[in-house]
Amino acid sequence: MDAPDYTRYTEFQLRQVLRDIDAQRFPERAQEARRWLGHFEQAKKSLMPATQTRRLISRSPSRRFMRWHLLVFLAVSLVAAVSTWFYPARWEVLTAVAVVAAAAALLGAASMAALQLQVFDCGDGLGFKHKDLEAYAAWRDIDRIELGRSEDQEWLVLHLKFESVLGETIEFFASAAAPDARTLRDQLNKRIAGH
Fold first, then answer.
1. Model pTM?
2. N or C: where does the chain have the smaller number of CB atoms within 10 Å of the terminal CB?
3. 143: pLDDT confidence band, cut at 50, 70 and 90?
4. How far apart are CA 126 and CA 139, in angstroms?
Protein backbone atom coordinates (compact mmCIF):
# COMPACT_ATOMS: atom_id res chain seq x y z
CA MET A 1 0.00 0.00 0.00
CA ASP A 2 1.40 3.39 -1.07
CA ALA A 3 1.99 6.03 1.59
CA PRO A 4 -0.40 8.99 1.43
CA ASP A 5 0.84 12.31 0.07
CA TYR A 6 0.62 14.46 3.20
CA THR A 7 1.60 17.59 1.25
CA ARG A 8 -2.00 17.68 0.02
CA TYR A 9 -3.54 17.42 3.49
CA THR A 10 -4.87 20.32 5.53
CA GLU A 11 -3.85 20.92 9.14
CA PHE A 12 -7.21 19.55 10.29
CA GLN A 13 -6.81 16.38 8.17
CA LEU A 14 -3.30 15.80 9.50
CA ARG A 15 -4.56 16.04 13.08
CA GLN A 16 -7.20 13.43 12.22
CA VAL A 17 -4.49 11.19 10.71
CA LEU A 18 -2.41 11.40 13.89
CA ARG A 19 -5.49 10.64 15.99
CA ASP A 20 -6.47 7.60 13.89
CA ILE A 21 -3.18 6.14 12.61
CA ASP A 22 -1.60 3.05 14.10
CA ALA A 23 1.77 4.67 14.92
CA GLN A 24 3.26 1.30 15.88
CA ARG A 25 2.48 -0.15 12.46
CA PHE A 26 3.20 3.00 10.41
CA PRO A 27 5.82 5.01 12.35
CA GLU A 28 7.17 6.72 9.22
CA ARG A 29 3.68 7.97 8.27
CA ALA A 30 3.06 9.32 11.78
CA GLN A 31 6.44 11.06 11.66
CA GLU A 32 5.67 12.56 8.22
CA ALA A 33 2.26 13.80 9.44
CA ARG A 34 3.96 15.42 12.48
CA ARG A 35 6.55 17.01 10.20
CA TRP A 36 3.83 18.62 8.07
CA LEU A 37 1.99 19.82 11.16
CA GLY A 38 5.25 21.48 12.19
CA HIS A 39 5.38 23.08 8.73
CA PHE A 40 1.91 24.57 9.30
CA GLU A 41 2.99 25.92 12.71
CA GLN A 42 5.78 27.78 10.90
CA ALA A 43 3.39 28.90 8.14
CA LYS A 44 1.14 30.52 10.78
CA LYS A 45 4.03 32.81 11.75
CA SER A 46 4.94 33.75 8.17
CA LEU A 47 4.66 37.33 7.02
CA MET A 48 4.73 38.63 3.48
CA PRO A 49 8.28 38.69 2.11
CA ALA A 50 9.47 42.30 2.30
CA THR A 51 11.86 42.09 -0.64
CA GLN A 52 9.50 40.69 -3.25
CA THR A 53 7.33 42.72 -5.55
CA ARG A 54 3.75 42.58 -4.38
CA ARG A 55 0.79 43.06 -6.69
CA LEU A 56 -2.56 43.93 -5.15
CA ILE A 57 -5.22 41.53 -6.50
CA SER A 58 -8.11 42.49 -4.24
CA ARG A 59 -10.43 45.44 -3.86
CA SER A 60 -12.77 46.47 -1.11
CA PRO A 61 -16.50 46.40 -1.79
CA SER A 62 -17.73 49.79 -2.85
CA ARG A 63 -18.88 52.08 -0.07
CA ARG A 64 -21.97 52.73 -2.17
CA PHE A 65 -22.88 49.01 -2.15
CA MET A 66 -22.24 48.79 1.59
CA ARG A 67 -24.36 51.89 2.30
CA TRP A 68 -27.17 50.61 0.06
CA HIS A 69 -27.22 47.26 1.86
CA LEU A 70 -27.24 48.87 5.28
CA LEU A 71 -29.88 51.48 4.40
CA VAL A 72 -32.31 49.03 2.79
CA PHE A 73 -32.37 46.69 5.77
CA LEU A 74 -32.48 49.53 8.28
CA ALA A 75 -35.39 51.10 6.35
CA VAL A 76 -37.30 47.80 6.42
CA SER A 77 -36.63 47.53 10.14
CA LEU A 78 -37.81 51.10 10.78
CA VAL A 79 -40.97 50.68 8.67
CA ALA A 80 -41.83 47.46 10.48
CA ALA A 81 -41.22 49.06 13.89
CA VAL A 82 -43.35 52.12 13.08
CA SER A 83 -46.08 49.88 11.64
CA THR A 84 -46.59 48.29 15.06
CA TRP A 85 -48.27 51.57 16.14
CA PHE A 86 -50.72 51.48 13.24
CA TYR A 87 -51.34 47.71 13.35
CA PRO A 88 -51.18 46.78 17.04
CA ALA A 89 -52.88 43.42 16.37
CA ARG A 90 -49.84 42.38 14.32
CA TRP A 91 -47.16 43.76 16.63
CA GLU A 92 -45.51 40.35 17.15
CA VAL A 93 -44.98 39.72 13.43
CA LEU A 94 -43.90 43.30 12.74
CA THR A 95 -41.49 43.31 15.68
CA ALA A 96 -39.98 40.06 14.43
CA VAL A 97 -39.55 41.57 10.94
CA ALA A 98 -37.95 44.69 12.45
CA VAL A 99 -35.49 42.63 14.51
CA VAL A 100 -34.57 40.30 11.63
CA ALA A 101 -34.05 43.23 9.22
CA ALA A 102 -31.88 45.09 11.74
CA ALA A 103 -29.84 41.91 12.37
CA ALA A 104 -29.43 41.41 8.61
CA ALA A 105 -28.16 44.99 8.28
CA LEU A 106 -25.61 44.51 11.03
CA LEU A 107 -24.47 41.08 9.82
CA GLY A 108 -24.20 42.36 6.25
CA ALA A 109 -22.15 45.33 7.36
CA ALA A 110 -19.88 43.06 9.41
CA SER A 111 -19.35 40.62 6.53
CA MET A 112 -18.61 43.49 4.13
CA ALA A 113 -16.09 44.84 6.64
CA ALA A 114 -14.39 41.43 6.57
CA LEU A 115 -14.01 41.82 2.81
CA GLN A 116 -11.99 45.01 3.35
CA LEU A 117 -8.74 43.07 3.57
CA GLN A 118 -5.98 43.39 1.00
CA VAL A 119 -4.66 40.35 -0.88
CA PHE A 120 -1.28 40.51 -2.60
CA ASP A 121 0.27 38.22 -5.20
CA CYS A 122 3.84 37.85 -3.92
CA GLY A 123 5.04 35.56 -6.71
CA ASP A 124 5.52 32.39 -4.67
CA GLY A 125 2.37 32.80 -2.61
CA LEU A 126 -0.31 35.19 -1.42
CA GLY A 127 -0.05 37.81 1.31
CA PHE A 128 -3.01 39.09 3.33
CA LYS A 129 -3.40 42.31 5.27
CA HIS A 130 -6.43 43.39 7.32
CA LYS A 131 -6.10 46.33 9.70
CA ASP A 132 -3.07 45.45 11.84
CA LEU A 133 -3.09 41.72 11.01
CA GLU A 134 -0.88 40.19 8.34
CA ALA A 135 -0.54 36.63 7.05
CA TYR A 136 1.20 34.86 4.20
CA ALA A 137 0.60 31.52 2.49
CA ALA A 138 2.90 29.82 0.00
CA TRP A 139 1.06 28.18 -2.92
CA ARG A 140 1.52 24.71 -1.40
CA ASP A 141 -0.26 25.91 1.77
CA ILE A 142 -3.40 26.99 -0.09
CA ASP A 143 -6.00 24.25 -0.54
CA ARG A 144 -8.26 25.81 -3.19
CA ILE A 145 -10.08 28.93 -4.31
CA GLU A 146 -13.81 28.99 -5.03
CA LEU A 147 -16.36 31.64 -5.94
CA GLY A 148 -18.84 33.28 -3.61
CA ARG A 149 -21.91 34.88 -5.16
CA SER A 150 -24.72 37.24 -4.38
CA GLU A 151 -27.31 38.48 -6.86
CA ASP A 152 -25.04 41.09 -8.42
CA GLN A 153 -21.49 40.30 -7.26
CA GLU A 154 -18.93 37.50 -7.25
CA TRP A 155 -15.93 37.25 -4.98
CA LEU A 156 -13.18 34.74 -4.25
CA VAL A 157 -13.24 32.36 -1.30
CA LEU A 158 -9.74 31.12 -0.50
CA HIS A 159 -9.29 28.01 1.66
CA LEU A 160 -5.95 27.70 3.43
CA LYS A 161 -4.59 24.38 4.63
CA PHE A 162 -3.94 25.93 8.05
CA GLU A 163 -5.58 28.37 10.46
CA SER A 164 -3.91 31.76 9.91
CA VAL A 165 -4.37 34.86 12.08
CA LEU A 166 -7.06 35.86 9.56
CA GLY A 167 -8.71 32.44 9.64
CA GLU A 168 -8.70 29.36 7.45
CA THR A 169 -11.08 30.88 4.90
CA ILE A 170 -10.33 34.28 3.36
CA GLU A 171 -12.84 36.08 1.13
CA PHE A 172 -12.05 38.99 -1.18
CA PHE A 173 -13.19 40.81 -4.30
CA ALA A 174 -10.93 40.77 -7.37
CA SER A 175 -9.27 44.14 -7.98
CA ALA A 176 -10.32 46.27 -10.92
CA ALA A 177 -6.87 45.70 -12.46
CA ALA A 178 -7.23 41.91 -12.16
CA PRO A 179 -9.39 39.85 -14.51
CA ASP A 180 -12.93 39.01 -13.46
CA ALA A 181 -13.40 36.78 -10.38
CA ARG A 182 -13.84 33.54 -12.38
CA THR A 183 -10.71 34.08 -14.46
CA LEU A 184 -8.67 35.08 -11.41
CA ARG A 185 -9.95 32.01 -9.55
CA ASP A 186 -8.87 29.74 -12.42
CA GLN A 187 -5.44 31.40 -12.72
CA LEU A 188 -4.77 31.11 -8.99
CA ASN A 189 -5.99 27.50 -8.82
CA LYS A 190 -3.55 26.60 -11.63
CA ARG A 191 -0.70 28.11 -9.65
CA ILE A 192 -1.82 26.21 -6.54
CA ALA A 193 -1.96 22.94 -8.51
CA GLY A 194 1.55 23.58 -9.87
CA HIS A 195 3.10 23.44 -6.39
1. 0.69
2. N
3. very high
4. 7
